[in-house]
Amino acid sequence: MNKSTKIICEVVLGAVIVGLAIWLYSSIMKPVKFDNEYQYRRDVCAEKLKDIRLLEESYKMAYGHYCGSFDTLFSRLMNEDSLRIVLKEVQHDKIPADVDVDEMSETEKIKLGYLIRKEAYVNPIAQLRESGKLTLSDEEILNLRYVPFPKDKKYDFTIGAGMVESGGFMVPVFEVKVDLKDLLADMNQQDVVNKIAALEQTNRYPGWKVGDLNSPITEGNFE
After folding, report:
1. Burial of 122 from C-beta contacts in 10 A (0-12 / 13-18 / 19+)
2. Whole-angstrom Cα distance, residue 72 to residue 30?
3. Does residue 55 contact residue 77 with C-beta atoms inside 8 Å?
4. Range in 19-28, 44-53, 153-162 with the lowest mean pLDDT
5. pLDDT per residue over 1-44, tens digit each?
6. d(CA 80, CA 162)
7. What is the predicted pLDDT for the residue at 121?
8. Which residues make Cβ contacts (< 8 Å) with residue 27, sequence separation at least 6?
9. Higher model confidence: residue 18 or residue 203?
10. Number of C-alpha atoms within 13 angstroms, CB side, residue 65?
11. Residue 27: CA atoms inside 13 Å, Cβ hemisphere, count?
């Protein structure tokens, strides 16, 4: 083998080695990158779903049931003083020194004028902000409805509400969710199919959700 042929062979062999190294690295990193992006998208969706749950719980306090429409949920909570609260005010100046009100029922205290109950209506969003449970701006609240991925597509989480029987009683339920096939639509589809199949094999919902239309739970499957 002459010198030039030897150099060519060494260059070709080097290129093959580099190519194999790149292929091997890509093969190893491909599932890692998919899993990292999968976990990231789950976390972002989870934060939105937790905030939506908070609004649904506030809506239920105001209306006695959950809401199956983002338009109604936002408009009623943001634009109406829809949450009724009861304020209790003890009339200390009317209670005789020898009277122990702690031994009385609330009805007795009201009847004797020792306690006054007042009803007031407040804005649910304002209440959540004052309590520190909600820190989102109005614009951020309105954007909770949108699934954050893929970035070039704008669509809503699926939302629903209803009633189910539990313990002999009809109780309100809600559900907000997004399927993985939609959330991961811009990722490698074979990886997405494999992930969905793995979840379905263990009877798990192939996506992220909070609440359940068939059971009176408010937990998310990401928790």
Report:
1. middle
2. 43
3. yes
4. 19-28
5. 566 666 666 566 666 666 665 555 455 556 788 999 999 999 99
6. 23
7. 76
8. none
9. 203
10. 13
11. 6
Tell me the two tokens of residue 34. 């998919």
Residue 213: burial class (beta carbons within 10 Å; 0-12, 13-18, 19+): middle
Could you read off the pLDDT of 113-136 as tens digits, one per residue? 877 777 777 788 888 898 999 999
Residue of 197, 202, 205, 210 whose CA lies nearest to 45: 210
Report the share of the chain in percent with pLDDT over 90. 57
More confident residue, 60 or 100: 60
Which residues make beta-bridge pairs with 116?
89
| Contact (CB, 8 A) for 179 and 204 | no
Which residues touch 74 (CB under 8 Å, ≥6 apart)?
A: 55, 141, 142, 145
Name residues whose C-beta falls within 8 Å of residue 98's C-beta, 6 or more positions apart in sequence: none
What the block records as the tokens of 94 is 């009317």
Cα 206 from Cα 223, distance rounded (Å): 15
What is the rounded CA–CA span in Å between residue 70 and residue 141? Answer: 10
Rounded CA separation 223/210 (Å): 9
Please compute, for residue 165, the number of CA atoms within 13 A of its CA located in the half-sphere on the CB side: 1
Q: Which two tokens stand for residue 114?
A: 């020792």
d(CA 87, CA 68): 30
